[in-house]
Amino acid sequence: MPPTITAFKTSPDRGQGLARDMRVRWALEEAGQPYEVRLVSFKAMKEPAHRALHPFGQIPTYEEDGLALFESGAIVFHIAQRHAGLLPDEANARARAITWMFAALNTVEPPILDLQTARFLEGDKPWAAERLQLVKDRIRARLGELSVYLGEAEWLAGAFSAGDLVMVHALLRLRPSGILDEYPNLAAYVARGEARPAFKRAFAAQRAVFTGKAATG
Amino acid sequence: MPPTITAFKTSPDRGQGLARDMRVRWALEEAGQPYEVRLVSFKAMKEPAHRALHPFGQIPTYEEDGLALFESGAIVFHIAQRHAGLLPDEANARARAITWMFAALNTVEPPILDLQTARFLEGDKPWAAERLQLVKDRIRARLGELSVYLGEAEWLAGAFSAGDLVMVHALLRLRPSGILDEYPNLAAYVARGEARPAFKRAFAAQRAVFTGKAATG
Q: Could you report the per-residue pLDDT of A112-145, keeping only the tens digit for each?
């Protein structure tokens, strides 16, 4: 039985691939693993049946025989532990790749998500415009450091890993703001992630939910 | 050779244990592992020598023979993988405990850290007071869900795990705000964490940096 993941029934980003099921789809594609998708409405996400899988009433979740997980980072890590292709075998290299997963989720992504908060949850507040600049500058501080670290390297820690997968997806959300393009090596890094066949398959699959067309025949 | 971690030379919280070296100290104490501490000034944290260990110029870092890691979540996970006491052995139980580490870091902690941003980075802005209420309500939304999930359980996923360690430490930061005490089961959960002998040893060790008194003999 392939695992079942959950995704939004109605795409909040019109199929741009920004929802967090995209990370799980991408990881499963990198690992060459088939999966089933159950679509969940915004209303059903907050009801007890879904909360039993995800205490915070969000997507994605991940179910396989006898195991239910939530949190995209945890699910990507679970997939990466059990299948080849997302983490190096050598112990120290593996620890470094895992470090980048945590850095993406806990250091780089929070200021990026604050941009969404500033725009959508507080977009009608009198402080919205002035505060948006502060939020953007906090993002730039992190991206400047990441850009220096990456330099001319292709990926963050040797070969492509789950750390890159999570980082690329966190950075993708910045593209419409123009901030990503202020750091050409980071923009190229994100583009390398998007060019991976596994990314393309995952992107097409989530987009098909929005367009109503199945991704593959 | 025991590992070496880094911590702030000058405690920003006057030894209250809120800095992230506390998580690593606590994990090492739970695992019964000795460690060395190198103190780093705010200035030195941003210099190339420290950036070589931590691309974002923060603490903690972790060094052992041939391996250098950063990000408290990654370091706690590394310790938990290599020593008994922080993750269950059974594969599914282990995956669930790891899920709670990611949930603590990526879902629960970001709104809590936004309280710091609202108070300290934007405390002098005209919107500070009104926005603080929005930030607090977003924290309450998460804590309400966490409180329902925890219910009367002692820990989040069976026995105490690295997931609880990171969650308790993320929640601790809320105590001065009074928000934690709005959820009696979460306040008791945090108190259970603080009552652990390993927490107490770690707390005393970080406090000794502030008081200038060595924690032990």
A: 999 988 888 888 998 899 999 999 999 999 999 9
Q: Are strands A36-40 and A4-8 parallel, antiparallel or unpaired?
A: parallel
Give the three-state DSSP class for A164. Answer: helix
Name the residue facing B107 among A51, A71, A95 (closest C-beta): A71
DSSP-assigned letters across all residues of B65-94: TTEEEESHHHHHHHHHHHSTTSS-SSHHHH
- Whether the ipTM is more than 0.90: the answer is yes
Task: Give the chain B residue nearest A82 (alpha carbons).
Answer: B91
- Cβ contacts below 8 Å, chain A against chain B, sum to 114
Chain A residue numbers with beta carbons less than 8 Å from the beta carbon of B113 are 110
> What phi and psi, each to the nearest 5 degrees, are found at residue A34?
-70, 160
Question: Nearest Cα to A101, choosing from A159, A153, A164?
Answer: A164
- The reply to whether residue B106 touches residue A101, judged by beta carbons under 8 angstroms, is no
Domains and CATH numbers, chain B: 4-85+198-211 (3.40.30.10), 91-196 (1.20.1050.10)
pLDDT digits (tens, 9 = 90+) for B4-21: 999 999 888 889 999 999
